[in-house]
Every structure is written in structure tokens, then in C-alpha cells.
Amino acid sequence: MYTPKFNRVSDHAILLEAMRENSFAILFGPLGTSSTPGAHAATHLPLMIKDEGEHGLIEGHFAAANPHWKALAGRKTLVVFAGAHSYVSPTCYTEALSVPTWNYIAVHAYGILSLVEGSQDKERLVTELIVIHEPGFLDRWREFSDGFRRTMLAGIKGFRIPIERIEGKFKLSQNRTPEERRNVLTAHAAGTPDQQELARWMQRLADPGLNPRDHEEAKGAGTVKG
After folding, report:
1. What is the pLDDT of residues 133-179, one digit of tens each?
2. How far apart are CA 166 and CA 182, in angstroms?
3. What is the mean pLDDT of the chain?
4. Residue 58: what pLDDT?
5. Boundaries of every domain in the chain
6. Could you report the per-residue pLDDT of 27-69, keeping only the tens digit for each?
7. In the predicted model, is pLDDT for residue 24 greater than 90?
8. CA–CA separation, 191 vs 2, rounded Å?
9. Where does residue 190 fall: left (phi above 0), alpha (psi -120 to 50 degrees), or beta otherwise?
10. SS (H, E, C) the chain
11. How far apart are CA 178 and CA 162, in angstroms?
12. Among 81, 83, 80, residue whose Cα is nearest residue 201
């Protein structure tokens, strides 16, 4: 992922937090069927992010009917977590020769996907996902007959991805002057939920304290999307 150093976030805890807050992510990798050689596919899935191992662990499940799980099993997989994003008006800037841009948060995680095959392990994945999103449904799930649960679990393919590498890009106007950053923060804080989320991250991460060389490098990238 193209990430200027003034947008780069490498704090492990912050990256995992951003992933959890945006856990409906996209898995990218080859499709590789005989009829589509060289093709790639993307699958949108709700995921669980755990602070296990050196860089963290991603778990989830595919629909068994989705052929993507077959292609990704045992392969390096890219998982993209897209966070809050927003248009930034040039009226926030003090220079007249300014153009719009976009602020956003993105985290990319890489690792080898392995399948979770056993019915007990797949039930654990489903149960943990229920606990995260609707804990009140857990008792009802357990009240279903064993046969019904087995049928439901047979329709999914569980997986885990131990994270080998992780990249975080928090594009939050770090390349602008303090006055301009305050203007952007004020505009975001008064805006949509996504804009307010960006304002929260701007306040939390504060100013990076760019040195003059960093600022000159950043200045040239200030109005470019990417």
C-alpha cells in the first residue's frame, strides 16, 4: 500500500483496534480455477481479530459454496480493512491554490490462510462471532437441535490467518500546517459519523511533529489521492 511516512501508523495496538472497529473486511487472492487461469477474487466477510502471535490473528468463515476458500487455502492472503473516510474541502486550507483531497483510514494485513475443518472448531468460530455481535442470541443458538447446527456448520468453511505483516495508513491531513489541521478537524467534528470518527483519530494521534524536511516532502503530496 502506498503510504507516505507522515501517514504511516505502526503501533500494533492501534492497528488491531482499527481492524476490530472495521471488521467487515475484504480478502483478496487468486481464484485459480481451470476455467479462469490467472483470475483473482475478493470476498467480503465479517472477521475476528485477536491479539495472538507476533502480529495478531484473523479468524472467520466462508460460505462453503464460495470457491474462493479452495484457492486461498495454504496461500498468502491480503486482508483489507477500510475505515472511516471523507472528502476534505480546500476551504480548510490557507493557501488559495489548493484543491480537494480525501482523508481515510486503511489497514492491510498479510498472512497464510489455513482452514479450520473440525465441527467443534467451526462451532467455536460461530459462537465467538455471535458473542461479539449479538450475545443475547447465544442461548437460542445453543437451543437449536444438534442436527440443525450440524447442517448450518456444514455450510461454512472456517479459516485462520496468523498475521505476518501489517500496514496502517491514517491519512489525516498530517502534511498540512497546524492551522489547516485545526480547520479540517473542526469540519470533520461537525460532520457525518465517518467525519467525526476521523476527527476522533486526529485528536488521538495528535500532530506527528514533522521536521522541516518531512513537511516539504508532505507539502507536495497534500492534494493527491492515494
Report:
1. 999 999 999 999 999 999 999 999 999 999 999 999 999 999 999 99
2. 29
3. 90
4. 98
5. 5-219
6. 999 886 656 667 888 999 999 999 999 999 999 999 999 999 9
7. yes
8. 27
9. alpha
10. CCCCHHHECCCHHHHHHHHHHCCEEEEEEECCCCCCCCCEEEEEEECEEECCCCCCEEEEEEECCCCHHHHHCCCEEEEEEEEEEEEECHHHCCCCCCCCEEEEEEEEEEEECEEECCHHHHHHHHHHHHHHHCHHHHHHHHHCCHHHHHHHHHCEEEEEEECCEEEEEEECCCCCCHHHHHHHHHHHHCCCHHHHHHHHHHHHHCCCCCCHHHHHHHHCCCCCCC
11. 39
12. 83
Neighbours of 108 (CB within 10 A): 19
Identity at 6, one-letter amino acid code: F
N- to C-terminal Cα distance for the chain? 9
- Bridge partners of 58, per DSSP, are 49, 161
Burial (0-12, 13-18, 19+ Cβ within 10 Å), 182: middle
What is the assigned CATH class of domain 5-219?
mainly beta
75 close to 110: Cβ distance less than 8 angstroms: no
Cβ atoms of 69 and 130 within 8 Å: the answer is no
Cell digits of residue 88: 476534505
Amino acid at the residue 164: E
- The whole-number pLDDT of residue 38 equals 75
Q: What is the pTM of this model?
A: 0.87
